[in-house]
Design a protein that fits this description.
The protein contains seven helices and nine strands, in the order E-E-E-H-E-E-H-H-H-E-H-E-H-E-E-H. Helix 2 runs parallel beside helix 4. It is an alpha/beta fold.
């Protein structure tokens, strides 16, 4: 099983054409195997930050250092499934693009779908799936390459609260099983506190670091945790940081 990777951001700055500064002087260290939640006001540069780490965008200034052997997977807010492919073939797509032989890639996709609880849906098509099921296919498609760095950009934001909480529990369990490094962008303080080791709170644009706070909750978490006083206390700390950052 792949181990997570470490990330070091030093003096990160991103200025777009027209002079709009999205990120300004950001320093951040992510340790191998950590689960980091990234929060901040809408439009503050959270998605831009993920894109820079993924190599999909370039910083104007500063440095991104990722430990060797990184294998990145990216999960977007929209599942982006191909409607003419069934669930199994959607999940296998990254391996197909990498040239992995058919039998191997379908076996790997089936195993990934089993991990996200979709073994009984491999022959269905996207239009036969609920929103939560589509996001689980998207997650399986990301996991099929055995990444050691998983980047998620508000993947559950459009889902109802019950489905979202179930997927949060499943994602945290997968993270614990796989020991990968995870960066998860969210607007939800409760989601951040439930999922993460640390909450990184950014200011309104341009993004600067407001708070980098450990989440002081047990490693093993389930839905009952959300009703505890300690969960409420941790959530309040993150909420207060968001307010300080201009949310």
């Amino acid at each position: 099983m792949n181990q997570g990777v470490s990330i070091q951001l030093t003096g990160l700055r991103r200025v777009f054409d027209g002079g709009v500064t999205a990120i300004d002087g950001l320093d951040l260290t992510v340790n191998s195997g950590e689960f980091i939640a990234i929060l901040g006001p809408s439009g503050c540069g959270k998605s831009t930050l993920l894109r820079i780490i993924a190599g999909l965008d370039k910083a104007s200034e500063g440095k991104v250092t990722v430990s060797p052997g990184v294998k990145i997977a990216y999960v977007f807010q929209d599942a982006h499934l191909l409607p003419w492919r069934n669930v199994l073939r959607n999940a296998a797509l990254p391996l197909e693009l990498m040239g992995v032989p058919k039998r191997r890639r379908l076996a790997a996709a089936e195993a990934a779908l089993e991990q996200v609880g979709l073994s009984d849906a491999i022959d269905r098509y996207p239009n036969q799936l609920s929103g939560g099921m589509r996001m689980r296919v998207s997650l399986a498609r990301a996991l099929v390459t055995e990444p050691n760095l998983l980047l998620l950009d508000e993947p559950f934001a459009a889902l109802d609260e019950i489905t979202r909480q179930k997927l949060d529990e499943q994602l945290r369990q997968l993270w614990r099983q796989r020991a990968m490094t995870v960066l998860f962008v969210t607007h939800s303080t409760g989601e951040a506190v439930f999922l993460a080791d640390r909450a990184v709170v950014l200011s309104a644009r341009p993004a600067r670091l407001v708070e980098d706070r450990p989440i002081e909750l047990p490693e093993k978490r389930d839905g009952l945790l959300r009703s505890t006083p300690e969960f409420a206390r941790q959530t309040r700390f993150v909420f207060d940081a968001l307010e300080r950052g201009g949310a």
